[in-house]
Amino acid sequence: MKKPLTFFFKDDGAVPNNPRLPMLIYKSAIDLTQSRDPEGDIEKMFAANDWGHGGWRNGIFPFAHYHSMIHEVLGIARGKATVRFGGDQGEVLEVGPGDIAVLPAGTGHQRLSDSGGLVVIGGYPPTGTYNLCRGDHPADRIAALKTIPNVAKPRSDPVAGPAGPLLGLWPDE
Length: 173
Prior knowledge:
Elements: E1 5-7, E2 23-26, H1 38-48, E3 53-58, E4 65-66, E5 72-78, E6 81-85, E7 91-95, E8 100-103, E9 109-114, E10 119-124, E11 133-134, H2 138-147, H3 166-169
Antiparallel strand pairs: 1-2, 2-8, 3-10, 4-11, 5-8, 5-10, 6-7, 6-9
């Protein structure tokens, strides 16, 4: 199991990010080169590791947004994308098939471009409530600063399960 890349993002005044939990990027976490159903393979991995709740298949919104009441996992099934994580002052990363991004509550994300045919699998741990916040609504950010610290730590890593790196990289409350 490869160690994930870790990124900490500061509150940029529009997107709060998460002050204590790093975003994780698992490059090539799952080999999809021979897969006949990459979407299904990622969904099975997320479900097996208790991150398949509220799952979806789509892309990544082209506007900056975050979720203040739940953590999110994004698995790239098809295509490639350039994504800015962490708001305007964050990191611009290239993601492709088999890459998995684990976003703690509050982490901004925005698709800047894609190769066409982008399919992203999203999922959530069993605790938390989905919401969509945009960086252009100050009231969302003010409320998010209160809810983000209360989002429960997941019991499992979406890629490696209960013994995965997330549990050591994300401190207990």
